[in-house]
Automatic annotation (TrEMBL):
<feature type="compositionally biased region" description="Basic and acidic residues">
    <location>
        <begin position="76"/>
        <end position="90"/>
    </location>
</feature>
<feature type="compositionally biased region" description="Basic and acidic residues">
    <location>
        <begin position="170"/>
        <end position="179"/>
    </location>
</feature>
<feature type="region of interest" description="Disordered">
    <location>
        <begin position="19"/>
        <end position="102"/>
    </location>
</feature>
<feature type="compositionally biased region" description="Polar residues">
    <location>
        <begin position="34"/>
        <end position="50"/>
    </location>
</feature>
<feature type="compositionally biased region" description="Polar residues">
    <location>
        <begin position="181"/>
        <end position="197"/>
    </location>
</feature>
<protein>
    <recommendedName>
        <fullName>CSN8/PSMD8/EIF3K domain-containing protein</fullName>
    </recommendedName>
</protein>
<feature type="region of interest" description="Disordered">
    <location>
        <begin position="169"/>
        <end position="197"/>
    </location>
</feature>
Length: 398
């Protein structure tokens, strides 16, 4: 330092140490002004405000502390956002899987609907309920629907074989061979395509829809086919709501329908046995018998057994009868006859051999053990196959 400068400093009483410190501060580099810098810059130009070092440190420390706090909050929020995103992702995946499942189900339903399109074409309502009048208005629809019902019946009999169904199958085929052949081809096609299973209830409902569409129309040969078919398939399954109304219609329009003698006999036998065995109305049954089938002595014997409560003769006929229609109608009165038998045997016998009971007083297809369980009788079976009907009452002597 030159002498003139020292004199100047001495004149204003400035310390050389402060001067040295000021020179040192001027020699320091200007701090970084970038946002990442951890300290505030000390302005040295005239356009900026001077910040003392102790205040600069305090603000820097506060900013660092606030930054750490904010960084922690941001981290927590980031974790929360990640969890929300995960949940949203899972929900989106589940929604996508659900939509795919619905899509597969929709296409599966469409495929099934396509295979059953022919069946949906034959979905009709009941005329009596005002649901549908298409069958009533279209003869072609009625003819086609009858063939469809025949095909359903053929499919049902192929899956449920029995003597009664075989007899109904044979009668239906013999009475209407042309429609039967068409229906059989349709039934084979449905079976090969895996069409839905057929139940007797669905067939019965379908034939009812067809019958109702015919009631307001003049009797015709088509009426005859439909109502005879209704009787033949329904009485085997004790569906009296179908066969009774169909028989009444056929007998009422006997002349207009040009019923053959064997057809009148067939339906009259069913009606007589129903009135006797189901309605327990032998007087009405006898009236129908003498009007339509007075030559059927087997039916007359059954009526006589019912009037006299002759369970022994009635059960003998039941075990030996070969006519499926008669057997199926007698079966409807079996429980009543067995109840009469139990009361008569209980009041007339103390003991009987089990073989005697099974041979003379029970249906051939009903073993004694099943009979005792079904009717909850008070008889007791002993070890020697002896059945104790009732115990003897001991009299005390005085």
């Amino acid at each position: 330092m030159d002498d003139s400068l020292k004199n100047l400093l001495s004149r204003y009483s400035l310390d050389e140490l402060d001067l040295a410190q000021s020179q040192t501060q001027r020699a320091e580099p200007i701090p970084d002004r970038s946002p990442s810098s951890g300290s505030l810059p000390v302005a040295t130009d005239g356009n900026s405000t001077y910040v003392p070092p102790h205040r600069a440190r305090s603000k820097t420390q506060k900013r660092n502390a606030n930054g750490r706090a904010r960084n922690g909050t941001f981290a927590e929020r980031s974790d929360h956002r990640e969890k929300v995103k995960d949940k949203q992702g899972e929900a989106a995946e589940e929604e996508t899987a659900a939509k795919l499942a619905q899509r597969r189900a929709r296409f599966a339903t469409s495929d099934k609907a396509g295979s059953n399109q022919r069946h949906k074409q034959h979905e009709y309502g009941l005329v009596s309920r005002g649901e549908d009048k298409r069958l009533q208005e279209s003869e072609a629809a009625r003819e086609e629907y009858f063939v469809y019902i025949l095909s359903q019946f053929i499919r049902f009999t192929s899956a449920h074989s029995s003597v009664e169904l075989s007899e109904a199958f044979q009668k239906t085929r013999d009475s209407d061979p042309e429609n039967f052949r068409t229906a059989q081809s349709s039934a084979e096609e449905d079976s090969s395509q895996g069409a839905p299973n057929i139940t007797m209830d669905s067939i019965t409902l379908s034939i009812r829809k067809l019958r109702e569409s015919l009631l307001g129309l003049p009797p015709s040969p088509f009426h005859k086919k439909v109502f005879l078919f209704s009787v033949r398939i329904s009485h085997y399954f004790s569906h009296y709501q179908t066969y009774i109304s169909s028989i009444r219609y056929l007998l009422h329009n006997e002349s207009a329908l040009n019923l053959a003698e064997f057809e009148v006999e067939e339906i009259s036998v069913i009606l007589v046995l129903h009135l006797c065995n189901v309605n327990n109305d032998p007087s009405s049954a006898i009236a129908i018998f003498y009007k339509y089938i007075p030559h059927r002595q087997d039916i007359a014997t059954i009526l006589r057994c019912w009037v006299l409560k002759d369970f022994y003769s009635w059960l003998k006929i039941y075990n030996e009868v070969e006519n499926s229609a008669v057997k199926s109608m007698m079966k409807l009165g079996l429980q009543t006859m067995l109840n009469w038998m139990v009361r008569a045997i209980t009041s007339g016998y103390y003991t009987l051999q089990k073989e005697v009971i099974e041979t003379n007083f029970l249906p051939s297809d009903l073993p004694y053990a099943e009979f005792a369980a079904r009717y909850n009788i008070s008889w007791h079976e002993e070890e020697n196959d002896m059945i104790t009907i009732r115990s003897r009452v001991k009299k005390w002597s005085r």
